[in-house]
UniProtKB/TrEMBL annotation:
The keyword Hydrolase applies. The keyword Transmembrane does not apply. Residues 42-332 form the GP-PDE domain. This is glycerophosphodiester phosphodiesterase. Its EC number is 3.1.4.46. It is an enzyme of class 3 (hydrolase).
Length: 346
């Protein structure tokens, strides 16, 4: 029941968001001939915001993604020393912030996880919010470094509410809980903090426009009885036993999750043909959100990122994580227009 409600929610909210944000195409489900689980258009998930253009996990990146027509905004979440959820992908801070240039924090560097660095869980939320974000990829624009502060989850939700007020629409978010077991080992279990945030925002309910994702199956299994929100199981790829996540089969994942989030290579062979994974997931009622399409990286299938996106859309993915939402939106729009034109000629 939760899974069916979640699928209906994603379809309706994607259409509303595209219409309100000025996306190139409003996903028009059945008329476009999509092979998704619901027949609705695949959703474009802004991976850490429009992180191909702005430093990831910043107001600038999320706002730009929204303006480019992304259907879902995706923040990664770490834990601060005082138990607040922080919008960061990496547990260390040297690559994504200006902390190395902050003399007041010079003595806070330490070795952890085999790396000498500054660590999110060693700082309070206020200390982290004093840092400024930087682009993590050297070959991407550095023009927007040191402008936006590090965000808490509350900051992120404040931005979402601001955008919703501007467009008079509802925005789907897809927060990823990073390293929950490692945080718990430091006495910083993210589960209570997440539930508290969802409760305070009125999101801990069936039909809420939020998808909670994680690579950590035990975390999602703990979370499942505590919330009716949509849950997505992420993982890196197949192992010797087949397509699994932490040793779990798709059938086992379907017992606690509503969706799966595999790497592109799990879905597509290098020649662009299907591995059969998506079809197996759909047969179990699991939506498939694939990661990560990047315009400035070699595609897994095809000669260009457009080829890769077309292959994924034709396959029937329900969502595509991308660092450049505008490209994914444009390819989807072109495919939708071509299909509608074909039908009109019949």
């Amino acid at each position: 029941m939760i899974r069916l409600a979640a699928l209906t929610l994603w379809a309706s909210l994607a259409a509303a968001l595209a219409a309100c944000s000025g996306a190139a195409d409003t996903p028009a489900a059945a008329e476009a001939g999509w092979n998704t689980l619901t027949g609705e258009a695949p959703q474009v998930v802004a991976h850490r915001g429009a992180s191909g253009y702005r430093p990831e996990h910043t107001v600038s990146a999320f706002r730009l993604a929204f303006e480019q027509g992304a259907d879902i905004l995706e923040p990664d979440l770490m834990m601060s020393s005082d138990g607040q959820l922080i919008v960061r992908h990496d547990p260390y801070l040297s690559t994504s912030t200006d902390i190395a240039d902050r003399p007041e924090f010079a003595d806070r560097q330490r070795t952890l996880m085999g790396r000498e660095d500054w660590w999110v869980m060693d700082f309070t939320a206020d200390e982290l919010r004093s840092l400024r974000a930087r682009q993590v990829f050297a070959d991407r624009s550095q023009d927007y470094n040191d402008i936006d502060p590090v965000m808490t989850l509350d900051d992120f939700f404040d931005l979402v509410e601001e955008l919703e007020a501007e467009c008079s629409c509802t925005i789907i978010t897809e927060p990823e809980i990073k390293l929950p077991a490692e945080h718990a080992a430091f006495g910083l279990d993210p589960l209570p903090a997440l539930l508290d945030a969802l409760e305070r925002r009125g999101l801990n309910r069936e039909g809420a426009p939020v998808i909670v994702q994680s690579f950590d199956a035990p975390f999602l299994q703990r979370l499942r009885p505590l919330t009716p929100v949509t849950l997505a199981m992420l993982y890196y790829g197949p192992d010797a036993q087949g397509f699994d996540a932490g040793g779990l089969s798709l059938e086992e994942i379907a017992q606690f999750a509503d969706a799966v989030g595999p790497h592109i290579s799990v879905l597509l062979n290098p020649d662009g043909t299907s591995t059969g994974y998506l079809e197996a997931a759909h047969a179990l009622g699991l939506a498939v959100h694939v990661w990560t399409v990047r315009d400035d990286r070699p595609p897994h299938a095809g000669e260009s990122v457009q080829d890769e996106l077309r292959a994924l859309y034709q396959l029937g993915v329900d969502g595509v994580f991308t660092d450049q939402p505008d490209t994914a939106v444009a390819v989807r729009a072109a495919m939708s227009a071509a299909e509608q034109a074909r039908r009109q000629r019949q």
